[in-house]
Design brief:
The protein contains ten helices and eleven strands. The chain is an alpha/beta fold. Its EC number is 1.2.1.10.
Length: 302
């Protein structure tokens, strides 16, 4: 039994997601839906024999009995409208925009808690890369403050990413707090114009109070990196996990130490070049959530 899916948004993320979904044993891609009839994503879908209408959410409204689950790869403001329509149709949604109309989900941290939620949010690329690290630190210590900086290649940031910079910083910072467990969070994104393009890089700082077991923090972070790499193969530490001596005056107060984690994400190259790890981690995480929901639905129907 497979779960019938439609992808809304035929840009970079939607097209990369389509290429990954073709390999799934539990997700059946019914249609890639866009709004530009000449988009590269829709053209590729047609060549693969996949239905590729250019009427946006209207296509889903006209075919509600053909779709069990929608992956929305449009933009934050478009998903706000789409979410209402999908809710009225009774169709589940996995939101790949920063709109955050449903609970935020990181597969390695809180996926099982939201398998029945009608709309789940994949946060942002930086959020998927760094929230697990803050959660790993929180397993071993109180985190009064956490900060992340994501640097992505400028050529890998499409119109949707550029229109959603404010939503990116707000949604990611909240994820560091709500899912990562930090008492206060901050997020920054940098679009790097270097040529040749760089891989996605992420830096995570987490404040550590007096009495923290540093070895437990390092072990927890290293295990989390392995767990994320199970569904994002290009996710890895760029340098060993480091505990720095302070004191550090942070927005969460003065602390004696902080942990610094440097990450790199290399994409799988399913649609875009491997430097676009920022796109790959979003589509890989969305696939992990979609397949878990499909298996959950299959189990519930037995």
């Amino acid at each position: 039994m497979t779960t019938r899916c439609a992808i809304i948004g035929s840009g970079n993320i939607g097209t990369d997601l389509m290429m990954k979904m073709r390999r799934s044993e539990v997700l059946e891609l019914v249609a890639l839906v866009g709004i530009d009839p000449d988009s590269d994503g829709l053209a590729r879908a047609r060549k693969l024999g996949i239905e590729a209408p250019h009427t946006g959410i209207d296509w889903v409204q006209q075919h509600p009995d053909e779709v069990d689950l929608v992956f929305d790869a449009t933009s934050a403001y478009v998903h706000v409208r789409n979410a209402k329509i999908l809710e009225e149709l009774g169709i589940g949604a996995i939101d790949l925009t920063p709109a955050a109309r449903g609970p935020k989900v990181v597969p390695t941290v809180n996926l099982t808690a939201h398998l029945d939620a009608p709309n789940v949010n994949m946060i942002t690329c930086g959020g998927q890369a760094t929230t697990p690290i803050v959660a790993a630190v929180s397993r071993a210590a109180t985190v009064p403050y956490a900060e992340m900086v994501s640097t992505v290649s400028s050529v890998s940031a499409g119109p949707g990413t550029r229109k959603n910079i404010d939503e990116f910083t707000r949604t990611t910072a909240r994820a560091l707090e709500e899912i990562g467990g930090a008492e206060r969070g901050k997020a920054i994104i940098i679009l790097n114009p270097a040529d040749p393009p760089i891989l996605m890089r992420n830096t995570v700082f987490a404040a550590l109070p007096e009495g923290t077991d540093h070895e437990a923090v390092v072990d927890s972070v290293e295990q989390m990196v392995k767990d994320v790499a199970n569904y994002v193969p290009g996710y890895r530490l760029k340098n060993p996990v480091t505990i720095e001596e302070g004191p550090f005056n942070t927005p969460g107060g003065v602390v004696p130490h902080r942990v610094v984690v440097l990450l790199e994400v290399e994409g799988a190259g399913d649609y875009l070049p491997t430097y676009a790890g920022n796109l790959d981690i979003m589509t890989a995480a969305a696939m992990a959530v979609g397949e878990a929901k499909a298996n959950h639905l299959a189990g519930a129907s037995k």
